[in-house]
Specification:
Elements lengths: L6 E6 L3 H11 L4 E7 L3 H11 L2 E3 L2 H6 L5 E4 L3 H13 L3 E4 L7 H15 L7 E3 L7 H11 L6 E8 L6 H6 L19 H11 L4 E8 L8 E9 L5 E7 L7 E7 L2 E6 L2 E7 L3 H7 L9 E7 L8 H14 L10 H17 L3 E2 L4 H13 L23
Helix pairs in contact: 4-5, 6-8, 8-11
Length: 394
């Protein structure tokens, strides 16, 4: 266990992200990876020998070994819940990959266990990897919104189609692209960070109306294209488009308020600042074709800060050492998950869904999809697939 300030860590899940976290932790001071878990014995034995750590195919045995202060959970989505709950019950700090869980009900189960354990161990840390919050451009955009520089918000539109994935991506793991293994598609996997940003900027919508295509361009059974409309208290309207099928794709956010507009695309923010309120001008102007004068400012980032995973991991370690709240408490992952589940449910039901979501209702719907699934994975030679997770952060 923790001694002389050194935090002993286990990594549960040694896929692309698990191996990335090992590399990052090996460069950090004050911590040491002591064990890893993978469900594949050959893989865990090979990596354990390479890293010089203990290897497990039984995560319960790993958690019970008595030498862990913290774990990073980087497994397929459904396992986030079971693994995290077992770790928290042993008072082991947890940093969980996005999404926090496959659906809201599982996230609520995790949070309930965490809150119960904190009654006995108040300094227990449960954090989530939503690294976009560390990016300077997103911090600036949030500041613009929170400080009211755009005034009353009227609408936003987000095209989020820069997540192109060939069929080979889904063929690599048996869990990907399925309701039983992944629990969702482009929303739950690729857009989890973007939808975390949506909640971070605008809060929880009061209703969602969405249309999704399931396996439209890929041989999968989950969504690979989504169009959604979101309604917020106070009149804000939002639109969101996501796809893993467009190349070249688009990542463009446009936020419109009475005092102007903010556009974010290609690591650049363009801020249009009105001289007066457009809504006020509508009411008092005597000019039938008049417009509001505005100034334009541009701010650009070079992307040198990187994707931010390492900063989230470092913050997690700091939160443990200093007995403080992490940058992204895992409970906050519940909000974006509710938006994701709401979009899927709206599409399946072909109707508007109101939030907060009935988590029991969505869990029943998901179990129905799993039960009646007739999907079969295509046969493919995985040893011919080239996998480099860093390509996802370009």
């Amino acid at each position: 266990m923790q001694e002389k300030g050194r935090i002993h860590i286990g990594i549960i899940g040694m896929g692309n992200m698990g191996k990335l976290y090992y590399e990052q932790l090996s460069r950090m001071e004050g911590c040491q990876v002591v064990s890893i878990w993978s469900q594949t014995e050959e893989k865990v034995n090979r990596l354990a020998a390479e890293y010089g750590v203990q290897g497990f195919t039984d995560y319960i045995a790993m958690l019970d070994a008595g030498n862990l202060d913290a774990v990073i959970v980087a497994t397929p989505h459904y396992q986030h819940t079971t693994v995290t709950i077992e770790a928290l019950r042993r008072n082991i700090h947890v940093l969980v990959e996005k999404p926090v869980a496959a659906h809201v009900k599982d996230a609520e189960r995790m949070i309930a266990v965490y809150e119960e354990q904190r009654r006995h161990k108040p300094d227990l840390v449960f954090a989530a990897i939503y690294q976009q919050r560390t990016a300077p451009e997103w911090q600036y955009i949030r500041q613009v919104v929170q400080e009211g520089k755009l005034g009353r918000l009227m609408r936003f539109a987000w095209f989020n189609t820069n997540w192109f994935r060939p069929q080979a991506y889904f063929n690599v793991g048996n869990w990907r692209g399925t309701w039983k293994g992944e629990g969702g598609g482009v929303l739950l996997n690729q857009c989890a960070h973007n939808l975390d940003m949506m909640w971070w900027l605008f809060g929880l919508p009061q209703s969602i109306t969405a249309t999704a295509a399931f396996g439209k361009y890929h041989h999968i059974e989950v969504e690979d294209e989504v169009h959604a409309m979101l309604e917020y208290p106070g009149g804000l309207m939002g639109s969101f488009v996501a796809s893993t099928s467009e190349c070249p794709g688009t990542d463009r956010l446009e936020i419109v308020g009475e005092y102007g507009k903010l556009v974010y695309e290609h690591k650049k923010v363009t801020l249009y600042q009105n001289a007066e309120s457009a809504l006020g001008y509508i009411q008092h102007s005597k000019r039938a074709f008049g417009t509001v004068r505005h100034d334009v400012a541009e701010i650009e980032w070079d992307g040198s800060a990187g994707p931010g995973h390492e900063r989230i991991v470092a913050d997690f370690l700091q939160a443990i050492a200093d007995r403080q709240e992490p940058l992204v408490p895992a409970a906050e992952g519940l909000h974006s998950l509710m938006i994701i589940n709401g979009m899927v449910l709206s599409s399946i039901r072909e109707s508007k869904v109101r939030l907060p979501l009935d988590s029991d209702e969505y869990e029943r719907e998901l179990q129905r999809l799993i039960k009646h699934s007739t999907y079969r994975k295509p046969e493919a030679s995985q040893d011919q697939v080239m996998v480099d997770v860093r390509e996802s952060f370009r």
